[in-house]
Automatic annotation (TrEMBL):
Residues 121-142, 159-183 are annotated as: Disordered. GO terms for molecular function: adenylylsulfate kinase activity; sulfate adenylyltransferase (ATP) activity. This is Adenylylsulfate kinase (APS kinase). The keyword Cytoplasm does not apply. InterPro entries: APS_kinase_dom, P-loop_NTPase, Sulf_AdTrans/APS_kinase. It comes from the Archaea. It comes from Methanocella arvoryzae (strain DSM 22066 / NBRC 105507 / MRE50). Its EC number is 2.7.1.25.
Amino acid sequence: MAWAVWFTGLPGSGKTTVAREAEKQLTAAGIRVRRLELDQIRKVITPEPEYTEEERRIVYAALAYMAKLLTEENINVLIDATGNLRQYRDVARSLIPAYAEVYVRCPLDISMEREARRRAGHAPRGIYEKGKTGQSQTVPGLNVPYEEPLEPIITVDTSKMSPEESGKKAAGAILKKFGGSHG
């Protein structure tokens, strides 16, 4: 049976970096896995995002449904998305029988520093600055809540561990939880 694991944490915490490293580790172990990066998917679902709660609910539900469809095709999935409210992640939990979360913990100040240095790519830049100046009222951990997972299979603190170590620990926890499901 294929599984899905959601990498959740504050913007700038290192979710994408850790998920990519875990993907490398799992692939090297012979595990077939597909990573769904919300920042890429959001550009298709909401090309001009407003980040309202309703929009987030729809986008996260679509992401959870994509992961469900992939697991039904026997493809293991790594979900790379903030999912700031537990209710968003609970949708995936309700749809996918073999589901878990990895909490990518990082203090807000360090996440803010990292996000400010982020290279242009899929993720929006300058979100914390916009949140601090009032240009945005929807920044998780700053002016909207970020709810930590209640029972992650592992918490990796990216302020204390390297991306490689964090990814390796996450991959190890996934293998421990789900075994060698090759998909």
